[in-house]
Every structure is written in structure tokens, then in C-alpha cells.
Amino acid sequence: MKLLTRSLRLNLVLGFALSCLVGLLVFGILAHNVALDSYRQTVHQNLVNTYAENALRYYQQNGTWEGVDPGPGEGGGQGGGQPGGGPAGGPDGQRGAEGQGGPPQGQNPQGQNPQGGQGRDDPQKGMRPAKHLGILDTQNRVVSKTEVYPMGQQLDLKDLLFTKTLLVNGKVVGTAFEDPGAGASSPNQQAMINVINQTILMAGVIGLALSILLGAAMAGQLTRPLERLTVAVRSLKFGKQQEPVKEQGTDEVAVLTRAFNQMSDQLVKAEVQRRQMIADIAHDLGTPLTVASGYVQSMQQGKLAATQERLEVVYDELLLLQNLVDDLRLLSLADAGMLTLSLDLIAPEMLLKGIQKAFAFRAEKQNIRLTVQTDADLPEIRLDFERMRQVLGNLVNNALHYTPDGGEIRLLAKRTDGGVLLQVQDTGVGIPAEKLPYIFERFYRVDETRSPENGGGSGLGLAIARSIVELHGGKISAQSVIRQGTTISILALA
To answer: Where is this region: Disordered (predicted)?
Structure first.
């Protein structure tokens, strides 16, 4: 059993062989039985037909069934019929062939009478029946004695296995039959059985050999892609980058290969992003810590005086550090599914007007118009008000960073199938098309020069927005055109 669990190829080959063997056994048994039954029926029917031909000759010569086949133990002289049916007077009293008998009473096998005179042709030549053969008259009464049925017994033709209607000039004169107890076995029949058995055995051996060869070929074809996948998995396990595994066909193995290639590609990207994220976290955490610790150390050593301005710099750096830590904690909770929502029915217009009010002073200071546009009779949407304010506030904050003076930011709410579409549109610088798919990744910055220390964000805002929106069951997406602006859409929040 251990061997079977170690090799899929061996399992497949043995499975093919076993299936073929079972099929061949079933086929062999059925073929043997059908062929043997057909052969037996043919033999027995031929015996009845031969006996019927002899009986007709007797009836045509005599016009009656009287005296036909006196039966075993009857008649005098050398020519009396024998139960086995061989010509009388033979060496052992046995018949030479089934269905044929010896001459009538009073004649020797050469048709001569005991006194040596030349007699007429034996009208019953070939009529001595086997013990299961007999003749019925037109009333289905036995007129030819057998070992099973006595003379004169009336039979039902339905009870007989093999029959042959006897016709003379188109008129039914009787029926030749073989009784149901017939089960003759002859050397010819045994030889036929041996031929059938040998043929089936030879076919089984050839079929089994072919099934093993075919199974080996098919097993190799099935397991070869799996072997390639195994090598690729082992390489991936040790962190080695590799070429995609070649896909062949459209079967389940090809689907598995395609899925593995996609997973491998995603793992490689995730590893690159993980390393980049660690570097970004170290950088974003290190910079404010370095600034704050430098000021504190200098003031502690008396090199700098602890002025209000310098204390405010330290405080700002620590606040930046605190915000970054809070963002990371929020993302970790969202990833772990531990970020809880307090859902309420909120009017979209109220939500957007609250955001407008919060950023109105800053927008006015930058000479940017901040407007709200909503469809009439919008349904209320179920969401966490504070979390969604955080998402929309982050989007508006980004738009204010990248929209020049005299530009416009529009907060929109539109009715859609099954929900409400919230949008933040700006007339800013836009996002390059090649960077648009990555803006919701963590620590990704469209402008890599804008880090927290020089006025940029941490690169976590849009990643947090996506996590919160998806936690609501919604979807966030972005469209942008360079020098025309960007639109961030939040879909299906109802």
C-alpha cells in the first residue's frame, strides 16, 4: 500500500490495468456463456433437423408413423435398435453418429436378410434416435418411443426446447423434437468450448498488455505537468524567482497550472511590496524620530535653548509619527477583520455637506471652489458615518494637494442600481495611466518626491480608504486624465 501512495503515475497505470482486467473478465464470462449457449443450440437444433429429415423419408415411404423407431430393446435379429443408436451388429452395439440408427428388424447392416438374400433399402435407415429425440403426430402424441416419454403420451410443444415441424406436400404430418432433459456433450462440443476459452484468454492477455502500455502513456501525459508544478513549487518555497510553468490544453491540470502561475506572480509582487513597505515604514518612522530626538538631545545638552518654536517643531514631528502609527494600526485591524463598523442610515447629501464644511476654509484659502451636487430623492445609505467621513476627508485632502489655484473640487452623489455612487472630482494635475492601478497600494506615492517631511502624505491614505469601503461592501475606483483632473468613485453603499 505504501507503494501505491508514493507514485501517482503508478496508481494511474494500475488503475487502467485493473479497470481493463475487470472489463475483460466481465466480457469473457458473457462471451463464453453466449458463445457456448449459441453453439449448444446450434448442435441440438441440427440433431433435431437431421432426425426430422430421416423421419420424413420414412413417412414418405410408408405413409404412416406406425412402426417407426421400435425403440430400445424391441425387435428381433441382429438389427435391433440400440439405445445409443449405432448400427446393430457393430462391435460394441454403439451408433456411428448421433441421430442415425441401424437397419430395421430382420436385416443386417448391408441390407441382406439372415438367409443371405438381397433385401430392399432399409426404410428406417438413420432413424434410430438418440435417447432424447422423438416424433409427435399431428395430435402431439408420442409415436416414437424415447427413454423419457412413453408411446402415446401427449406433449405440449411449449415444454420442448427444440422442435421441427414435419411437412409432406405442404401438410403437417408430425413434429420431431428433443426433450428438455437433453444435455448431450460431445467431443466436438468440448473442443469448441476449449477454442472459446483459449480465444478469450488470449484476448484478455493482449488487452491487459495494451491497457498497461496505454495507461503508462496516459499517466505520463497526466503527471508530467504535475511534475513541472512540483519543481516550481519547490523553487517558490525557497524564494527563487522562476519562469511561469508552461500551460498545455484546457483540462483541470491546465487550470491548476494557470492558477499556480497567477499565485506565483502575486506572491512575487507581494514580496516586493512587503520589502518596499518595510523600507517605507522605516523611512517614514525614522525621519520624524530623528528630527525630534535631535532637537531634544541638543536642548538637553544645552546646545539649543528650549524655545516655543523649537518645541512646536518637536511636537509636529511627534504628531506626524503618531498619525503614521494610527494609520498602520487601522490597516492592520482591517486586514485582520477586527475593524468594527457602527452602521446607521445616513443621507448622502448630509454626508457630503459635512465634508464641504470641514474643508471650506482651506479650499477658500487656496482659491479652490468646493461644491456639492446630488441627485434628487436619493435613498439613505447604511454606513459608519465617522469612517466614511475619514475616507471622503482623505480624498478631498489629496485633491486639495494636487489642484492648482482657481481649480474646482466637486462632491457628487448619484443614484445607481442597488445603491448610491459617491464621487470626488478635481481639476488637478491628474495621475499617469501607468500609475493609476497602484494608487490604492500601501505606501505608494504617485509623486515619489512628496514624502511626509516635505508636505506629502504617508502613502497610506488611499489604502485605508479602500479597506474601509470594502469593509462596507462597496467598491472604490479611480479615473484620471493628465492636466484635466481625477475622479475617485465609491460604488454601491446602500
So the answer is: 63-134
